[in-house]
Amino acid sequence: MQVQGGIGQTVGETSFGSLISPAAAFNFGYRFTPVWSLRAGVGGWQAKGAVVGPTQMYSYNYLQGNVDVLVDICSIFSGYRPGRAVSPYLFAGVGVNGAFNNAQAQSLASRFPADGYLWSGSNILPAGRFGVGTGIRITDAVRFNLEVNANFLGDKFNSKKGSAVDWQLGAMAGFTFNIGLRKGKSQPAASPEVAAVPVQQETVSSEPAPAPESEPVSDAPAPVVASAPEDAPSVAAEQKDAPAAPVFREEKKDVFFKIGKYELRDSELANLEYVAKIAKENPQTMIEVTGYADPQTGSAKRNMYLSRKRAETVAKWLETSGVSADRIVVKYKGGTESPYETPAQNRVAICIVR
Question: Could you tell me where the Low complexity compositional bias lies (predicted)?
């Protein structure tokens, strides 16, 4: 969710800056991949125009609904990094603009040419837009947002005939709240635990078992039990021969990082995509992501931080790929444990689907 406020500038016949007016916007968005996002929202407030000779300005109101495609610039070149301090982005989109309350321009009707561009009531126009912005991290859930945008509309937007389109420029600031992404369960470094498997045991009594009561002896002949035909099929054999249903065992993939880094590299995306695919095909499974660091490099505190960020980066990538956060368990070991022999292999986050 994104809330913005700022200023707009309607391009007209006066000097730039003389037609500034207030603007606001409210947006909802969804990040489909580390690079691509989609945003829908509504913005607007006030726009201005002017007639010249002498110059006299007028204002009117508008609202504009938009759908934008956003591209995260840093994720294109250096991989996905959820803790990045500054995240610049580009966007482009389309919308519908509805202008209204044009009474001030109507009061100056005698100074407008009779070309049919002066509108009354409301004015609905298609719009295109593009711009650039950046998010400045405050917390994992909140970012301060700066954005500039340009909107181009039909020539009747400002009630005057001019070039092919009218332009409404904007400079906005606000906050972006990541309310749709939940974190996986995070566990600090700890010794590995093995889940206890319940085992049924026979109860042993210190007292001897009582002797069974003797059956009374009868003189009657013992009943004859008919034996089954030799060629009768065995039910137990049939059950034994039946094919067992396939049981998902376990899948393990490694995601390696550069020394001192926790950004994902393109070379590791294939393993992550495989983990996401297996997890989606087996919705009953859980995904355990454990981060590690090379104990031969850096302090213990730094290594613990690196291992945690590596595990969280992988977990967030899986979430953006459609794996529910409730199914992801995040662990980190710092440099206290080394899953492999070489230092480079220990700069890793290990994903286990089970």
Answer: 191-237
